[in-house]
Design a protein that fits this description.
The structure is a single chain. This protein has four helices and 15 strands. With 257 residues, it is an alpha+beta fold. The chain has two domains: 101 residues, no CATH class; 127 residues, no CATH class. 16% of the residues lie in helices and 47% in strands. This is Lipoprotein. Keywords: Signal. It comes from Archangium gephyra.
């Protein structure tokens, strides 16, 4: 190639628009368990799917949750396998992470770099009830079903959200019946047949949410159970969710043939 041709080629190249670099954006990875092996991360994921009903609580993006190598996401400590639950914007992370922690307090978020626009955040199930307590503050209540000791039971949680939809506080009703406790004389029976369950009803009122809870702790094979109910009021005060028990029934004992 002679000098004239070289100069002409250089001139043409200078006229071409620069090649666009691969665009990346910052996002937040929501992560469950993990470890040095794929089996460790998969074990955590399988256990949560089976024990707390992850898919009953949240609407996951396609192909999520999943086990991946941490090396695939710049910003994470390399060399690990993780249970990746979602990739979220900062706002969605703030709204979702507190609810994820009701599944497992060890769930955490880490800032990562992803291809521009590639967000795969999860969605919350539709609320059972909601009430606006003050301008910009909303209390929402959710019910979901998840297995407990081999029985599919109803669970609930109540959250306080600000005007942007960010969850600033949350409350989960006590597990099991109110005064029945985790230790029961029924434990002398096979624990696989024990069942602790509560049903919930939510009623919006003026500036507050009324919560009705009806619980039972029993043993199917023995045909016995203790039952108790309670009522709560949920209100907002200075950005905090305040839940007060306003009524509690006496514990009753039931027996059937």
């Amino acid at each position: 190639m002679n000098r004239i041709h070289s100069q002409l080629l250089c001139g043409l190249l200078m006229l071409l628009p620069p090649m666009a670099a691969s665009a990346e954006t910052m996002a937040w990875a929501l992560i469950g368990g993990g470890g040095a092996t794929q089996e460790e991360a998969q074990r955590w994921l399988d256990q949560k799917k089976a024990s707390v009903g992850l898919h009953e609580m949240f609407h996951f993006s396609k192909d999520f949750p999943k086990v991946v190598r941490s090396d695939e996401y710049p910003g994470l400590k390399p060399g690990l396998f993780i249970a990746l639950l979602a990739i979220c914007s900062a706002h969605d992370k703030d709204a979702t992470l507190p609810l994820m922690k009701t599944v497992d307090a060890g769930i955490y978020a880490r800032e990562v770099r992803v291809s521009d626009g590639h967000m795969n955040c999860l969605g919350e199930a539709a609320p059972e009830a909601e009430v606006v307590t003050a301008p910009g503050w909303t209390i929402r209540a959710y019910k979901f079903r998840a297995p407990f000791m081999g029985v599919d039971l109803e669970h609930a949680r109540v959250v306080l959200e600000d005007a942007s939809g960010k969850i600033v506080d949350a409350w989960t009703p006590p597990k099991g019946a109110l005064d029945l406790g985790e230790v029961s004389p029924f434990e002398r029976f096979n624990t696989r047949d024990l069942a602790t369950g509560c049903g919930y009803e939510f009623k919006p009122a003026d500036g507050k949410l009324l919560i009705e809870q009806d619980c039972m702790y029993g043993h199917h094979a023995a045909g016995v159970a203790d039952r108790q109910s309670a009522s709560y009021e949920a209100t907002a005060n200075n950005g905090k969710l305040v839940v007060t028990r306003v009524r509690k029934s006496k514990k009753t004992h039931h027996q059937w043939e």
